[in-house]
Request: fold
Amino acid sequence: MTRVRKYHLALIGVAALIVVVSLVRVLTGFDDLTSSGTVGAALILAVPIALAGLGGLWAERAGVVNIGLEGMMVLGTWFAGWAGYQWGPWAALAAGLIGGALGGLLHAIATVTFGVDHIISGVAINLLGPGITRFLSEVLYKEGTPAAEAGAGITSSPAVSGDTPTISLPLLSSGPDLLGKLESTHWFLVADVAGVLRGLTHQMNLLVVLAVLLLPLTFFVLWHTAFGLRLRSAGENPWAAESLGVNVYRIKYVAVVLSGAFAGLGGVFLVFVSDKYVEGQTQGRGFIGLAAMIFGNWRPGGLAAGSALFGYANGLQLRSAQTVTTFFLFGAVLLLAYLVLQVHRLTAPDRPAELAAPGVRQYVVMAGAVVGAAVLFWLWLVIDELPNDFVFITPHVLTLLVLLIASQRLRMPKADGVSYRRGEQH
Amino acid sequence: MPAGLNRALLTVAGAAIAVVLAIAICSVAIVVAGGSPLDALVAFFDFGNSARAESNSVATFLNRAVPLFIAGLAVAVGFRMNLFNIGVEGQYRIAAICAAFVGSTFTAPAPIQIAVIILVAAAVGGLYALIPAVMKVTRGVNEVISTIMLNYIAIALSAYLLREPFAGERAEGQLNTTTPPLPDSGMFPDLNFVFEWFGMLPPTRNGGLWGFLLVAVVLGVVIWVVLERTRFGFNVKASGLNGPAAQASGVNPKKMIIAAMVLSGGIAGLIGLPEILGDRGAYTNNFTAGLGFLGIAVALLGRNKPVGIAFAALLFAFLDRAQGALQFADIPASVVTIIQGAIVLLVVVANEVTNRIALRIEERRAAQQLGRNTPVEVAA
Amino acid sequence: MSADTLATARPAVELEGITKRFPGVVANHDIRITVQPGTVHAIVGENGAGKSTLMKILYGMQKPDEGTIKVNGTEVSFRTPSDAIDVGIGMVHQHFMLADNFTVLENIVLGAEPKRAGRLDTASARRRITELAATHGLRVDPDKLVEDLGVGDRQRVEILKVLYRGARILILDEPTAVLVPQEVDELFQNLRELKAEGLTVIFISHKLDEVLGIADAITVIRRGTTVASVDPREVTARQLAELMVGSELPTPETRESTVTDTVALQVSHLTVEADGHHPAPKGVAAGEYAARLRDEGKRLLLDDVSFQVRKGEILGIAGVEGNGQSELIEAIMGIRAAHGLVELDGSDISSWSTLRRREAGIGYIPEDRHRQGLLLEASLWENRVLGHQTRKPAHKGVWVDRKASKADTQRIIDAYDVRTPGVDTMALALSGGNQQKLIVGREMSGEPVFLIAAHPTRGVDVGAQAAIWDHLRDARAAGLAVLLISADLDELIGLSDTLQVIYRGRLVAGLDPREITPEQLGGYMTGAIAGNEET
Amino acid sequence: GGGGGGTTASEEPTGGTSSAAGTGSLKVGLAFDVGGRGDKSFNDAAYTGLERAKTELGAEIKELSPSADGSNRGDLLRQLADAGYNPIIGVGFAYAEDVKKTAEEYPDLQFAVVDSASNAPNVTGLLFAEEQGSYLAGVAAATKSESGHVGFVGGVESDLIKKFEAGFVAGVKSVKSDAKIDVTYLTPDGDFSGFKAPDKGKVAAEKMYQDGADIVYHASGDSGLGVFQAAAAAGKKAIGVDSDQRQTVKETDLQSVIMTSMLKRVDVGVFEFIKAFQGGAKGGTNVTYDLKVDGVGLSTTGGEIDDIKDKLDAAKKDIVDGKITVPAKP
Ligand SMILES: Nc1ncnc2c1ncn2[C@@H]1O[C@H](COP(=O)(O)OP(=O)(O)OP(=O)(O)O)[C@@H](O)[C@H]1O
Ligand SMILES: Nc1ncnc2c1ncn2[C@@H]1O[C@H](COP(=O)(O)OP(=O)(O)OP(=O)(O)O)[C@@H](O)[C@H]1O
Ligand SMILES: [Mg+2]
Ligand SMILES: [Mg+2]
Reply:
């Protein structure tokens, strides 16, 4: 019943965001804010995070906390690189999935069968992933092996043979490239929308499309199929599920193995972007994915938003570091908007009782917002370029800020992280 | 109590089996890699073939255990309360650079100098941990994410501090960035004399056996006392075992979160000091990273108890030390990481299994006892 | 194909020699029960007698160590509940087995989902549920979230779950424990209809008059063994109870009044909002503010609650669970923020922390001992310290005084007859009743001025029950003020000096326990009888 | 600083070394930087030098890789010393401190450290004038660029990489003073993942190409792969680093975008050091491998810069002659 309203609200939110961003772009002249290049880069950077997050989502919806995503992702990258150079991209895809799934299987055995604390098992897998892959590299890629001939080293595999296809939207993003033309006009709003659309459709790797499709697919499977209902029930109340004849162990196994496979797929994606396995290329994305999932309230849509935010900030920072200063302006605008809303609420005739006589608290908050907006605006005016160190942490700081605002609405599956044993009601 | 003894024996047996299994798994890996597991085993116990090499190796082993132990303690304080402080990594980095810098700005008699450095480190670590604590308490932000994010922020922040405000002089042709060197009074005296007690050569390795080992031992004892004997420790335990019950008993959960997190961060702040005060005399850009994450494994392996953590830290350090020896024996050094991961996983699995076996034994015993005196005289 | 085959048909369920052991407990021992089809078969027995365990065995959730099960004449062996479901058995559990964050529909179809083209076919499920609900008179909204439902609704969802699967044999494990008499009547009406359709019902309850009202046959279980099979037409509730307990029954009965004139606890205009606490603006009186919130249509968990408890008085609060009792307790304990005033011994404690309130002499026996009362994985003496961290004998400066705590724990064990090997035993090793006695002893040892006793004898066996009642009465005689909250109406009526009824967060009636029957009380609790609302 | 450069190891083969007499007395130990042997880059270049010492000088060699966190660098050096290796080489500037301390503990042994200056009497600093090589790369880029717009991608914002940037920028400006130069670093100093992030390298370079740059120079380890990919996708050029990447990169489509690579002959440095040690040289000094001794330079595989050889040679000559001093800091 509220779904429609939520959906509309989301649309309005996105529209408002585009307008604000567009405004900021026109004001500052930083065209990269909404260029198709930035959006494309954001997508590339967001996909592995989203895939890791999906891994987390599947596991945690089934009640298993998976902090071992990073380790599983590492396994995914290694196996993808190893199979990819020998048998091509499809083999890489399969091997990466299997590699990640094996990590998931290990986690499932430990947590589901043996009831080990989920965090411990995850930490162990994060140790094992890099250890095993390094070991495999030392054995299979060492000097004199055929792989080494093909360009492998201890820290990297040979290049994946063959390419994964890329697709573009005909007419709009390729050929006449209408969107590209629109984008280069730099018109208010028009260019922005064109840029975003073109970024999303121009020369997309097939795997990106696949990865993005996995989000709605996950939503469909988890919320609109019988299997999904059972899976979520294992995360909400496994004893209830058990009492209705659901095989909770099997559900959890499937979920956690799939979770590993998703993380592995994230690894495959990284390998495809780099064309090969490079030691350490996951760079903590397993953890970031987990954060994106919590950020997204254990839902695919929220997870997508979280990863997109991260990918966008990261892409912007890599593409044009000085653009990051516009976030100050953003912040100022958002705070002002908040102030306006607040004042409106306080002066509205039908205001709720607790706001009837605003207390010190309200005034302090509002004063804080005013000062904050002023400071941010001033920062935007005086700072041309941030030290690079601060630019690098933009995505992380943004995540923290958004969480500060939104965290209280989050709700995790009720039996998440609980060790479940058949026949032992909690 | 025989049941208790039974249980203890089972636990030890389980741990032993787990370690043996971990070794077996790695042996298979080594064989596959074309090496000999026996050589590997020898390498782990190969502390060098001269007296000097031996003492150096022993010092290396113990020196590695010190920060691991402190890291384990830091993590454990949070974990005992079900607070997942993944941010130990960032906390110790920020703390280390600030402490190293502050320590280099003045010169005082050694005890004062060192005390100030330790205090600064603990304070900075605690303050940095306060951020996620406050975020959790006031806005309900999950500490796992916030500390992960703060780890990244700490890396960038310390890089900035190291290059700009805290940068020290460096020699011509040196590319390492570093804070200004600590005065001599800032260096913690070593414990090399201990080696003489055992009739060994004092280690020549720089810094020898780090004196910070003593601080770590004292810290371990203090933390044990605090956690096991004080009201605060009781409240931590109660909050960890049953949050609602602790709250109903008058424990303020918000204050506890802040206190435990700050304590955890304060301890974390000390992780980098053994290296700085024992060896480097400054924070440099190749300061050892990653101890915070290893600390999680160490704490979990040590079951969040100081004594257990000490054993776990020694085990990890023992394995880490062999990295060089293994390479001399032509065995991939990554088996160390594999063994560490396998041990963590297998030991906890063994724990669960032995727990269950113990329960089953009790069950059988109870059944026997109750079987003799039939529960009720059937009427009707 | 149904009711008329009664005489000739094979038994619906036959249990033969069922034995089940748990660590330290033989839950079932050589149980024999035969249930005829198309009947309501009641199983009675005191707490921990092994009823739930037996039913879980029959439902495939637990495996018996020994014994055989026959359903409709064929021997079966269940590995999981789905095996039991397959032969037409359904079970409504003693504790709700519902996923709070799911809708009613999702809870009902789980495990037996209708599918169409790979999708969960919610439309057909909704149709089926509405149909079932209509034919059996079980009103529910399939699209509501379970967490928004009251206990009665949840019970209906549980029954619908079973019916949805087409079960022919229904197991109901204490379905009435959380229901008020009117709701019980409704349920029984449903059960009779089901019986008329030829379904078999196995029904567990402690409430013997209920049992006598509905059952066609009764089996009594004592300490894990079947001790009697009786015909409900031939026994009285009293006889049945004695069969269950094997001895005389205790009754909660307060003799002469010890109520004094000194007010120990005064609560005024206590109000709790459902969607989080927002501090009231300055200068607005709590009562007025509550009225304003009510006018705005805000959902209030506690709505302008005022009462006082005098020294030597037991004030009983009657109410169906979920009408604000938990919020009331938590507000008084300072665990939950609330508007209004709480005064202890004349001083305003509204802004005090929980700790300070406890130190000032509020004792607390929580409603859920496992959730709020105990550290299950800690020793008994540590549980003794809980709640007394800042008081003698548990503390010595910043230290926990282990020796004194252990000694005092031993005192409690002796004085309250807690059956345990020693003070170092883990709390989880104790049975529920002994855990409860430990809690009562602990809370009494702080020499409280005022005690909150929430369901003090819930899930406690008869002996322990009597002991706890005695302790409460003794303390009352010594001048303790007690706020008693209980779902056991006999206990409430028997112990209380004054009764208040709470309904939808409001105190709706002040009653005299000497003049009220459980049925009348039930009427007030469900809102069937309008209150006289006195403050 | 490039100037002083001291004694480059002499060219004349000392008696009987290359005849592989195998006296067995020469035991060379080498400790890699994090990543270890097989990184196809810096560490492997050092290993090439070591291996050459084995074949040409008959040395017995042992090479060790540090743990992932690099915490045991000093211990590896000591273990090599205790096992009787002499000389001992630490690869990477991170070894500076550890080599210094180990050298003090083992005054009878000779040490060398790559990329860092000598800091003890028995330590030889093997320095490379990356800025000079990068200068040439800058000259090549500016000359070849049609748009007057080039880029630089640095892996980690450390002082070492900044040397590359400084030289490159100076080189570009020497040709086209108004050229536009985009500079992006992938991670801050202290976060070494910037050398292992091809995806980030790709994003950074993509932006440069989109903005009109036609040649991008990278000094970002494995992340350079991403730069090459971006170049290939944009149909533009890139400049490799450290080794001749047109040869070491195996992907044919990427090879063709690598116009040239700035060579940093760590292998030469290591080999010459060992050879000099055998000849009796003692430490305490730095050896700078600069343009003069061809310790740095540009690769010509593919012949893409053959047409501007004169210009490059002129620039090189100016530097060697001291007419141009290339800045080492941006
Ligand atoms: N999973 C279990 N593990 C150990 N002991 C158990 C378990 N389940 C039940 N018991 C014990 O078995 C005995 C019988 O319990 P059961 O729940 O069947 O009693 P009951 O008759 O249903 O009691 P109540 O009236 O309180 O519901 C009790 O002593 C209980 O403590
Ligand atoms: N899942 C379980 N695992 C182990 N022991 C259990 C379990 N459930 C119950 N027990 C044991 O059964 C005994 C009493 O438990 P039970 O829950 O039946 O008590 P109870 O009297 O019904 O009280 P409550 O109303 O709190 O459930 C205790 O000894 C307890 O340890
Ligand atoms: Mg029970
Ligand atoms: Mg029961």
